[in-house]
Design brief:
The N and C termini lie far apart (58 Å). It contains 15 helices and 10 strands. The chain folds into 3 domains: 171 residues, 2-Layer Sandwich (Beta-Lactamase), CATH 3.30.450; 93 residues, Beta-Lactamase; 71 residues, Winged helix-like DNA-binding domain superfamily/Winged helix DNA-binding domain (Arc Repressor Mutant, subunit A), CATH 1.10.10.10. It is globular and about 70 Å long. It has 361 residues and is α+β, with helices and mostly antiparallel strands. This is Helix-turn-helix transcriptional regulator. It comes from Paenibacillus odorifer. One of its GO terms (biological process) is regulation of DNA-templated transcription.
Length: 361
């Protein structure tokens, strides 16, 4: 067990790590190495999520977790179980373990019985990486069955790290390319793929194949591995209640070009087989507004004004649609200009187009 002095030293290293790593993948890989020095574990996964849907936008997963990843997704979205990520985010419970949640009776957990035990794992520690009110990722640590459970002191130390890690995850999620870039529409237009109920690729167009390659490159995974965002939206779509639309969505910050939106829609074939259609497309204004709002700290009213500006509404039209005066519209616009570093509506539109690939609609 580490001493308090060792915990402090490793925390300092983690704090410094956020300032020297150049990519989200490298940051999370190095983070897991440092965490292992303070809180020993046998396997781990660190996942970026879309803060709007809480679905994975990419994960750093060690090999012994990769083997059980599909089954973990199935439990997460298909069954009720202790310490679900969404439940933890909703309850603002930053760190939890299976042994603690089941009062030392882990067999009460479906995930423990069906996935962890067959894989040789014992206790599992989950952390939801929340900054303020928004979740940017998940951290999951596992110990083998022959190891001790996670101690309260270890959980408390991980809890103290959550704001630090979440802040860095947020920064990577909102980071803009160093230069203005857009996708080549001839290469990266709308992509369509169809998966079986076992998430096997049944068909795809060339654009979808290129998007899949991009996502694999982002996660640094092999060509035979299904990218985690695809696995997440597909599994959620498959497990949506029958009366719902069976649609799931995730918005992904790519290393270059605009943000990518991936949608999954549940299908039923003529022979009653369930499949899922995956669509790939650059993010639309409605997808981007929550990201822009978070990046620049826009209020709810400012977001409404910004959406109207993107639509090309005049000051008079903005005032009428929001039931406020033209003077109030101007005050809100000045605040938006100040927060985004521009000085006029024209400059704002140009900025949104060049940096986020948003155009007037």
């Amino acid at each position: 067990m580490n001493t308090n002095k060792q915990f402090v030293q490793i925390k300092k290293q983690i704090n410094k790590l956020g300032m020297v790593t150049d990519s989200s993948h490298n940051y999370r890989t190095s983070l897991l190495s440092l965490l292992r020095e303070a809180v020993p574990f046998d396997a781990a996964c660190c996942t970026h999520v879309d803060p709007q849907t809480l679905l994975s936008t990419g994960a750093v997963t060690e090999d012994n977790v990769e083997r059980i990843h599909p089954y973990l997704f199935q439990i997460e979205y298909g069954e009720d179980d202790v310490n679900s990520y969404e439940q933890m985010v909703h309850n603002k419970r930053l760190v939890a373990t299976i042994y603690e949640a089941t009062v030392q009776q882990p067999e009460q957990s479906a995930r423990y019985r069906k996935v962890l035990t067959p894989a040789g794992f014992g206790d599992e520690l989950r952390a939801v990486l929340i900054l303020g009110e928004i979740c940017w990722g998940y951290l999951t640590l596992y110990r083998n069955a022959d190891q001790s459970e996670f101690l309260q002191e270890e959980c408390d130390w991980i809890t103290s790290l959550v704001p630090l890690i979440a802040a860095r995850m947020r920064a990577f999620s909102l980071e803009l390319p160093e230069r203005e870039e857009t996708w080549d529409d001839d290469l990266y237009g709308s992509g369509i793929a169809v998966l079986s109920d076992h998430l096997a690729l049944l068909s795809s167009n060339p654009a979808a194949d290129r998007w899949l390659d991009k996502l694999r490159s982002l996660e640094m995974i092999d060509a035979h591995v299904l990218p985690r965002p695809i696995r997440a939206v597909s599994t959620q779509a498959f497990n949506s209640p029958s009366e719902s639309s069976g649609i799931a969505k995730v918005c992904i910050r790519m290393y270059e070009g605009p943000y990518l939106v991936v949608r999954a829609s549940r299908l039923r074939s003529s022979d009653s087989q369930i499949q899922v259609a995956i669509s790939f497309e650059p993010a639309r204004p409605s997808d981007m507004l929550p990201i822009i709002a978070e990046a620049y700290g826009l209020t709810e009213r400012e977001q409404q004004l910004l959406h109207g500006v993107i639509r090309g509404l005049s000051t008079k039209e903005l005032a009428s649609s929001l039931h406020i005066s033209a003077y109030t519209v101007q005050d809100h616009l000045k605040s938006i200009f100040s927060k985004s570093g521009v000085s006029s509506r024209r400059e704002l539109i140009w900025y949104l187009h060049s940096r986020y690939n948003i155009i007037e609609i």
